[in-house]
Amino acid sequence: MNEAIFKRCEDMIKQGSSSFYHAFRGLPSPRREAVYVIYAFCRIIDDSVDEPERSPYTIDELRSLFLNLEQAEGHFVWPALRWLFDHFPHLDQGPFLRQMDGQLKDLSLTHYETMEQLEEYCYLVAGTVGEMLLPVLHENSTDRIVASGIALGKGMQIVNIIRDVGEDRGRQRRYLPRELMERFNYSEQDWENGLVNDAFIAMLNELRAQAMNWFRQGLEEMDTYPPASGFAVELASSFYAAILQSVERNGYDVYSKRAFVTDEDKLHMLGNVLHRYPMLGDMSSYTAVS
């Protein structure tokens, strides 16, 4: 495939998620390019709902074109996806379609009532990404390994939800389930006012515990991955878990402060993860985490 197309996919992941980019850029080809293509398409799906003014397609148009992928034209993502499915024949269209279903939920369900609803959403928008990546990263995905990939995706989505409480409130979306808010005596008015109190902190810590539990489940199968893939997944997970530490350092003020992981922290985590993968040898290219 045209290298310029891969470069455009790479640019999307570099601009959209430095954590993902720096975690996966050390993969061997064609796994690396496949991750870039998957990220680019997921980004376009997300933008079609969250930022339609910058999206080349509506989500209905994306679904229609994706279901007729061989004929789809007009954007670099279509030849990129055709390459992806040609090179990874075990990849299934199902997770991509379920990802679109999850993003569509943002148009109809804006205030969550139950943890069950939230978990379903986390699966649809992020667990599905685990399902997309596994045929690319792993050579023999069993049901147990697929379940671990889904768990990692759900854990990462909970991190996103914690980090973006304020941003989502600005979009009139409340992913904090009402049943959780009631359990911790945190009211709808408190959420609207952006109140950070002991109840709010306890509620976020409950969600944090759920995220960390899913991370633990997701990392249980790392020894079955090819080393470069396992390293990339572990590094991405470390970067995401560190966002929770940043939230804590910010005093849990996710309404007015953006939690992020510093380049120095990323380098420290890289060294810790790399220590568990000595078989990878020289990974000096990763030292430019910025």
UniProtKB/TrEMBL annotation:
Q: Keyword Transferase, does the record have it?
A: yes
Keywords, in A-Z order: Carotenoid biosynthesis, Transferase
Domain of life of the native organism: Bacteria
Q: Where does this protein act, in terms of pathway?
A: Carotenoid biosynthesis
- The EC designation for this entry is 2.5.1.-
Q: Could you state a single Gene Ontology molecular function term?
A: transferase activity
Q: What is this protein called?
A: Phytoene/squalene synthase family protein
Q: What is the originating organism of this protein?
A: Paenibacillus lacisoli
